[in-house]
Amino acid sequence: MALLGGHDGRPLRVADEKTTREELFARAAAVAGRVGGARAVAVNATATLDTVVAVVGCLLAGVPVVPVPPDSGPAERTHILTDSGAELLVGDGDFGLPSVPATGRGTASFPEPPGGETAMILYTSGTTGPPKGVMVSRDAIAADLDALAEAWAWTAEDTLVHGLPLFHVHGLVLGVLGALRTGSALVHTGRPTPEAYAAAGGTLYFGVPTVWSRVVESGAAEALRGARLLVSGSAGLPAPVFEALEARSGHRAVERYGMTETLITVSARHDGERRPGQVGLPLKGVSTRLVAEDGGPVPHDGESPGELLVCAPTVFNGYLNRPEATAEALRDGWFRTGDIATIAPDGWHRIVGRASTDLIKSGGYRIGAGEVEAALLAHPAVREAAVIGTPHPDLGEQVTAFVVVSDAVGERELIDFVAGGLSAHKRPRAVRLVDSLPRNALGKVQKKLLPGL
Ligand code: MCA
Ligand code: AMP
């Protein structure tokens, strides 16, 4: 089966624009004809139909597509474009690359490219340094979407509703390619607001926990009673939000777990239990296990925590240009997630934390502390910086920075300074000016001693 399914699926809406499958594939064919042969192609991944056309066009042509966050600041964008080797931009954007339009209609058909080839390069934060390019193959995407379709009974009868960003796995791979492959109708609401979710009349809804918490708080949950499945992922769904959502919508949310590098690997099922605070069972074709810090096995007794390792056909092709990082993360086919989990004897997984304090999840976005620290240190008044995630009632975690400065500088100025280089969600919400950072005898910052952790 072609990665993108047939041309006879149901219609799509992205923000205010509607289209049929036929129209989408005709527009995408025009793009495919213009990008063929490029090493990689960038797309300014706004929440628009043009983005969907551009991505589908690249996939038809078998050219790796690089969705660029539209709000990424100059430093982040330059890194993504340089590292990915993108040779062209589809659509609008001031990217300093030759661009081709996403307009027009084509009639050519394209042979299905080899499944092992990289379909997308998705940039995601590590604990240190700039974001890494995660190479995701066509086969990995197809395997993941088919496993999810099976677990959620996701078919062409569904109308999928979400408003998530089109530059990450959740919104783009599941939320757009999933609809194309299963044939379901898609309503992308532009932004994931509770009002838009309530008005969309879907059967299947995707959201990050912040979205579900806002759906509950706003009173919109009541309008989702007629849906079939509400799915949460990208960060842990707090049990109180799970329970409030059930009380107001009648739905026990399906929680699922994944990563950019592995796609979605663990989920509750449409025809199975839903347990608040737990992320479910491995999807079809996925194996998981737990290891201790010394690499030894950890029992699957539902209590002993260990680092979660994943082996699956959905695992990535590696980090672009970073063989050492790839070798470090992927050993003998097992990917080290960096997440600490328990596995119960009945196979249910619970994510209990992360091995490193240097990866922050805010609103479902993964943010590397090191990248934000580097952005702060570029300010002439900043001498030292330590960034951590601190609890936030709406976002799960917020980015909090502790900085030592040499000259008088305000919190706002430093926040705006970071925003000048990086995506908006990477900005610290709070900057605390301190006299010094806690360090050990070797001079390493002891983040666990910072207030808030
Ligand atoms: C933000 N704002 C700020 C600051 N930070 N203003 C001043 N100072 C700051 N430090 C601004 C924002 O720009 C925004 O302004 C306003 O405050 C509200 O921001 P926020 O509370 O963040 O809300 P939001 O903009 O409505 O975003 C919440 C959100 C968003 C919609 C939940 O975080 C989101 O789209 N998250 C999804 C992330 C995602 O898709 N992750 C998937 C990764 P203004 O209103 O003017 O814009 S893939 C993945 O994780 C795996 C595979 C998986 O499992 O899915
Ligand atoms: P990303 O690379 O942005 O895809 O983020 C992946 C990370 O999100 C994982 O390593 C987890 O830490 C976190 N994550 C995703 N889904 C869940 C979930 N359902 N529960 C807890 N954490 C999650």
Features:
five-stranded antiparallel β-sheet; binds adenosine monophosphate; nine-stranded mixed β-sheet; 27% helix; GMP Synthetase, Chain A, domain 3; globular; 11 helices; alpha/beta; Rossmann fold; binds methylmalonyl-coenzyme A; 453 residues
Secondary-structure blueprint of this entry?
Layout: E1 12-14, E2 17-19, H1 21-35, E3 41-44, H2 49-61, E4 65-68, H3 74-84, E5 88-90, E6 99-100, E7 118-124, E8 132-137, H4 138-152, E9 159-162, H5 169-182, E10 185-188, H6 194-200, E11 204-207, H7 209-218, E12 229-232, H8 239-249, E13 254-259, E14 263-267, E15 281-282, E16 287-291, E17 306-311, H9 323-329, E18 330-331, E19 334-343, E20 349-354, E21 359-362, E22 365-368, H10 369-377, E23 382-392, E24 396-405, H11 411-419, E25 430-433
Parallel strand pairs: 1-10, 3-4, 3-5, 5-6, 9-10, 9-11, 11-12, 12-13, 24-25
Antiparallel strand pairs: 1-2, 7-8, 13-14, 14-15, 16-17, 17-19, 18-19, 19-20, 21-22, 23-24
Helix pairs in contact: 1-2, 4-5, 6-7, 7-8
Bound molecules: methylmalonyl-coenzyme A and adenosine monophosphate (AMP).
Describe the structure.
The protein has 453 residues and is α/β, with parallel strands linked by helices. Helix content is 27%, strand content 27%. The chain is built from eleven helices and 25 strands. It has helices at 21-35, 49-61, 74-84, 138-152, 169-182, 194-200, 209-218, 239-249, 323-329, 369-377, 411-419, and strands at 12-14, 17-19, 41-44, 65-68, 88-90, 99-100, 118-124, 132-137, 159-162, 185-188, 204-207, 229-232, 254-259, 263-267, 281-282, 287-291, 306-311, 330-331, 334-343, 349-354, 359-362, 365-368, 382-392, 396-405, 430-433. The strands form six sheets. Strands 2-1-10-9-11-12-13-14-15 form a nine-stranded mixed sheet. Residues 164-165, 168-171, 192, 208, 210-211, 233-234, 258-260, 363-365, 415, 424-425, 427-429 line the site of methylmalonyl-coenzyme A.
